[in-house]
Specification:
With about 325 residues, the protein is α/β, with parallel strands linked by helices. About 45% of the residues lie in helices and about 25% in strands. The strands form five sheets. Strands 6-5-7-15-8 form a five-stranded mixed sheet, with helices on both faces. It has a four-stranded mixed sheet with strand order 10-14-9-13. α1 (about 25-35) packs across α2 (about 40-45), α1 (about 25-35) crosses α3 (about 50-65) and α1 packs across α4. The termini are far apart.
Length: about 325
């Protein structure tokens, strides 16, 4: 038996049409997990089902779509061109489906909550001290707004689906975001920083230029860097010429930092140092001017709590930044 999720009971009732084929959420979930991990067995472990169950579901999916999604071999499961083209649509479909369950859970929680609630997704890659940062921001904002503020790390596609479903009130992005259904309000700007491993040739130089970084590969993640104007997108637009290496796993990040002398771009916050594994360095502002931190909410009727949160953060932005850059 597979493990149950909040949305499991809806799976048999949820179908979507694709070119005459009828797809189900379970097939799409297995497909996305196998695509991300490059392995049917890892997808099976993630869902607590047998490899045979995953293989059977994906064979049925390929038959319905009329083409192979994977080539299986000694190197695992490699995506075909069709498979690569369907990863993002599958991810969006899964995010939209899961957002229904999230929205229902949030509605029930708010019905029981004595205080007003404000739920905000921080759209950034997972990082070591994310709970500390999110909790600190929530503790600062809650008394000022007279509300229970919850801020949590998430990724863009899931956050946008949750926003449109009403599971969250807003999302915070590092860099601007454009969507016809959303308003994007700048809250302030942050400096650009670089994570690099303890043996990187530039480890002794605290202020780096684009020219310094050009010979070394920079991490690129499709799920993150294709969603909004991220730090990487902003720097590449301004002239950063480092080769971008696609990485989508923790092992891949470690390999990039330690074995390939690569680096990861992000917000310059000394509090994010992971000594001695990775140290944050600053990029010269002459090369990489400040990147905007933005609050994204749905267009439509004004949400007073979201507006108050935006005003609060704008007024306190320098103070908030100072907490993490002592």
């Amino acid at each position: 038996m597979g493990k149950m999720t909040k949305c499991d009971t809806l799976w048999r009732q949820f179908d979507t049409s694709y070119g005459g084929a009828v797809l189900n959420i379970r097939q799409l979930r297995y497909f996305h997990l196998a695509a991300r991990s490059g392995s049917y067995s890892k997808a099976a472990r993630a869902e607590n089902v047998s490899v045979q169950a995953v293989s059977r579901a994906l064979s049925e999916l390929e038959e319905e779509l009329g083409g192979a999604l994977f080539v299986r071999g000694g190197a695992g499961a490699q995506l075909t061109p069709l498979g690569k083209a369907l990863v993002r649509p599958a991810r969006e479909a899964l995010a939209g489906f899961d957002a229904v369950g999230h929205a229902a859970a949030v509605y029930q929680e708010r019905e029981l909550d004595e205080k007003p609630r404000l739920d905000i997704g921080l759209v950034v890659p997972p990082f070591a001290k994310q709970d500390m940062v999110c909790n600190a921001l929530a503790r600062l904002a809650s008394p000022a707004l007279g509300a229970r503020v919850r801020i949590f790390q998430t990724l863009g596609i899931e956050a946008l689906a949750d926003l449109k479903a009403g599971a969250i009130d807003a999302m915070i992005t590092v860099g601007s975001f454009s969507d016809p259904h959303c308003d994007c309000v700048p809250l302030g700007k942050v400096s650009v920083g670089v994570f690099m491993g303890k043996r990187h040739p530039l480890r002794g130089k605290r202020l780096l230029t684009f020219a310094d970084l050009e010979p070394y590969p920079v991490l690129y993640n499709r799920e993150i860097d294709d969603f909004n104007e991220t730090v990487l997108a902003s720097c590449r637009r301004r002239g950063l010429a480092s080769p971008a290496i696609s990485v989508d796993s923790d092992d891949g990040v470690a390999n990039l930092l330690e074995e390939r002398s690569g680096y990861v771009l992000g917000v310059y916050l000394k509090a994010l140092d992971i000594k001695p594994l990775a140290i944050m360095h600053r990029i010269d502002p002459a090369d990489a001017p400040g990147v905007p931190i933005c609050l994204v909410s749905l267009k439509g009727p004004e949400n007073e709590m979201v507006d108050r949160f935006a005003h609060f953060i704008r007024d306190k932005f320098s103070h908030v930044a100072g907490l993490f850059n002592p």
